[in-house]
Every structure is written in structure tokens, then in C-alpha cells.
Amino acid sequence: MGPVHTLAAAGMKAVRDASPTSKVEIHVIVDKDKLAKTMEFWHQFLTRVKAKGQNPDVLAISHYPEWHGKPEALDRNLNTMATTHPGYDIDIAETAYPASGGDGSPLPNSPLPRTIQGQADAIRRVFQAANDVVDNRGSGVLAWEPAGYQPMFRAVPGLANTWEPHASINVFNASRAKHILQDTVYTSTRVGAAPKLPSSIRMLTTADNTITRVPVRWQPLPPGATDRPGEVTVTGETDTGPVTAVIDVVPRRAR
Q1: Helix (H, G, I), strand (E, B) or coil at 111
Q2: Tell me: the pLDDT tens digits for 102-142?
Q3: How far apart are CA 13 and CA 54, in angstroms?
Q4: Shortest CA distance to 65 belongs to which of 16, 21, 119?
């Protein structure tokens, strides 16, 4: 690995020198049932490039089920990397799933058919794996190669060199949250007393990173919900989604 880590360290230094704000990503493959071997590579690689004074920001892998395993293997691969190397973001640098072929039968290691809906569901499942990486360190998912390999696009009949997206590509738009609610509120009340629930909650608008407050309509508590100590949950609705209040019911003060 000598020439490899020396070359990689030189490449990282070149990126840092040319664009100090850019993140450096290293992309490797975790073949099916080869996680231990890949973790050995990461240990060797990171130890040696750090000895050269360099360090990447993002550790990345590919996920094609026919080569890299079931969705559960992707979850395991991502979280093993994240917990073993907590100083890095984790990225899925390549993924794809076909929308046709094989009479619609699933690819090896996938439960999903080779249809437009199956393609959308496969990509969504990869998004889920990235979203669930420990400590929220999943940094992104890239489809590869959108127009050529297992394409997210199809050739338009009768128009040369013209492509259009399958409906499955809408999964990318659907995954971009426009508003993020403070979806859980915690409060407390004494036994027998009605809890004071907020009339509004905070909401982040991702387009401009502003935080505003939106009205919330709480469901009534069931009769007797605060008659004894414990925890009570009540749901509420806003114009942009549901919220939950968790109420800690505590004993009355002794007199």
C-alpha cells in the first residue's frame, strides 16, 4: 500500500491547497460478505495517510445489491464504518437499480421488482439507510450513472439523443424536506391537573434556514389521563404535519 497511500495523501493535499473549504471523500467497495476485509483496509489506509499529515472528511461506499448484498447489509456496512471511525461523515457514492429487464424479476439480494416503482423503492431504501447512520452522519446518496447504467432516465421514442426521467426520479424531490417541525414536545403536570400544552411549535424552513412558530391543534386527553403518576402521550396537528406531546405526570406535593 506504500505508493497508494503516498499518492492519496498527495491528492488530499492538492485538494486542501486548491480549495480549503472542499471536503475530501474516499470511496471504496464493500463486496458481499467482505465487510471485515474492507474495515481492515480503512484501518490501514487511514493510519498511513494520517502519518503523511493528511486525513479525509468522508468515507464512502457503493451499493448495488447484486454485488454488495441485501439492504440490511448496507445498514450494517454504514453503521460499522460510522462507529469504528467516528470522525468522518459517511456517504453512498454510487447506487442504482434498474426499472426494466429480467421480466421484472428482482435483482439478486433485492426484494424489489425491476419496474419503475421498484426502482423508486430501491433508491428510497438506500436513502433510508443513509438517513439512519448513527449520529446523523450520513451525508448523501448519489445515483450512478443516471443516464447510462440501470438508468433513472429512458430514451424518448423517435427523438435522437433525447432522454426523459422515469417517474421514479421523483423520489429525489420527495426526499427533500421543505419544513422540519419540532415534532416532539416535553412537559409535565401534577396528578389531576390539566397539562399546559404550547399553542405553537417551532418549524425550520430549509430554503432559508429560518425558524418560525406554527399553530398546533392538540387532541383532547382521554378522561382520567392525569389521575395517576406516569407518562401520557397526546398527538397534535399543524398545517405541515403531526406533532407529539409527552407529558410527565408527577405526584402532588405533600402538604
Answers
A1: coil
A2: 999 999 999 999 999 999 999 999 999 998 999 889 999 99
A3: 7
A4: 119
Q: Which residues of 205-223 are buried (b: 16+ CB within 10 A; e: fewer)?
A: eeeeeeeeebebebeebee
- Alpha-carbon torsion, ordered 168, 173, 174, 177, to 10 deg: 160
Q: What is d(CA 13, CA 169) in angstroms, rounded to the nearest whole number?
A: 36
**Residue 168 in grid coordinates:** 421514479
Distance CA 167, CA 119 (A): 10
DSSP 8-state code for residue 199: S
Q: What is the mean pLDDT of each run of 10 residues along the chain (255 residues)?
A: 81 96 94 93 95 96 96 96 96 93 95 95 94 91 78 87 88 82 90 93 87 95 92 93 93 72
Which stretches within the chain are classed as H helix?
2-18, 35-51, 65-68, 71-84, 116-131, 170-174
Distance in angstroms between the alpha carbons of the first and the last residue of the chain: 74
Nearest CA to 67 out of 95, 102, 43, 42 is that of 95
Q: Please give the order of strands across the beta sheet that includes 217-218.
A: 184-190, 241-250, 230-238, 217-218
Measured CA distances, 94 to 65, 91, 114, 150 (Å): 11, 9, 18, 12
The overall pTM is greater than 0.85: no
Count the Cβ atoms, other than its own, within 10 Å of residue 64. Answer: 19
CB 32 within 8 A of CB 73: yes
In angstroms, the Cα distances linking 230 to 184, 189, 195 are: 18, 10, 13
